[in-house]
Design brief:
The chain has one domain (5-286): Ribonuclease Z/Hydroxyacylglutathione hydrolase-like (Metallo-beta-lactamase, Chain A), CATH 3.60.15.10. 21% of the residues lie in helices and 27% in strands. It has six helices and 13 strands. It has helices spanning 32-36, 59-66, 82-93, 157-167, 226-235, 252-266; strands spanning 5-10, 14-19, 24-28, 45-47, 73-77, 101-105, 110-114, 117-123, 137-148, 173-183, 200-204, 240-244, 272-274. α2 links the parallel β4 and β5. α5 (226-235) packs parallel to α6 (252-266). Bound molecules: zinc ion. Residues 11, 15, 52, 54-55, 186, 245 line the site of zinc ion (ZN).
């Protein structure tokens, strides 16, 4: 299934990503409600990757508009003090915000956001922190399906019916998870294997070349460079790639040229989509890939 993914993502300014069918928002940079309008009201679960302001400053208006008995649920890296501080400020500012839920999570936390759809948090190294302290997370989304166990594949319909009548349906099926979407959040490229098998990978590519930004990197937070991201993509199996979080210093032309050149050099075959700085891209997977 092609999910309807829409996003705005420009390093330093704002990042938010909406997956419409999953009522899901990843990160909540400013402009999110102004851009999504009524669609923002369908969002039930929000996963914030880290406490940089460009990833959370859209929350005040979002929760003000949408707080109702336990929703939205806002998940954040549990050792970030920014979220409890914001929650307590917003509850004074707009008392009905107390109806929303704010939930700290950590590496390997798994949350079922819909029947058979699970979001898993994975630690990344964007924000430097000791092991066991959770300040920056990536997210992977899994779809869980019940499939017939291999040993029953050759049985006839009647035989299956008999076995189910005797032992129950769980006896013949097993749960199979597929990684339908992955979101890197802000992160350096490190362990390739965590994205291997993603049907869709949305990865940051703050830099086109080796010209580390004093402003973006002022806190020592680590980002990815496009050639490192594409080198990784070449070496793993994914279905399609959405590149986002480019620095606004680069023009669209410069981004296109650099990405196309690397795709050619590395012989990358999967569709690659770009979210340009300063632009909202709606329903990304139904737009034309840069390499088509
Ligand atoms: Zn960022």
């Amino acid at each position: 299934m092609k999910y309807k993914i829409s996003a705005y993502s420009t390093a330093l300014f704002s990042t938010w990503i909406n997956v419409e069918e999953l009522n899901l928002l990843i990160d909540a940079g400013d402009g999110l409600t102004a851009s999504l309008l009524q669609k923002s009201r369908k969002i039930k679960n929000v996963f914030i990757t880290h406490p940089d302001r460009d990833h959370l400053n859209g929350l005040p208006q979002f929760v003000q508009l949408n707080s109702r008995d336990g929703f939205p649920r806002i998940y954040y890296p549990k050792d970030s003090g920014s979220f409890p501080a914001m929650n307590s400020f917003l509850t004074k500012f707009d008392p009905h915000v107390s109806l929303s839920s704010w939930i700290g999570i950590e590496d390997k936390s798994r949350i079922e956001i819909k029947k058979n759809i699970v979001v898993e948090a994975i630690r990344n190294e964007h924000v430097k922190s000791p092991l066991g302290i959770h300040k920056s997370l990536s997210y992977k989304i899994f779809e869980i399906k019940n499939k017939l166990k291999p040993e029953f594949l050759s049985k006839s319909g009647n035989e299956i019916k008999e076995i189910v009548a005797k032992n129950g349906r769980d006896f013949i099926t097993e749960k199979v998870e597929s990684n339908i979407l992955s979101f890197s959040g802000d992160t350096p490229v490190d362990d390739y294997s965590k994205w291997d098998g993603s049907k869709v990978l949305m990865h940051e590519a703050t830099f086109l070349k080796n010209d580390g930004d004093t402003q973006i990197e002022s806190k020592g937070n680590k980002h990815s460079r496009i050639d490192e991201v594409l080198q990784m993509v070449k070496e793993i199996e994914i279905g399609s790639l959405i590149l986002n979080h480019f620095s606004s210093r680069y023009s669209k032309n410069e981004i296109d040229r650099t990405v196309i050149k690397l795709i050619d050099e590395l012989k990358i075959q999967i569709p690659v989509f770009l979210v340009y700085p300063g632009e909202i891209k709606r329903d990304i997977l139904r737009t034309k890939p840069i390499n088509e």
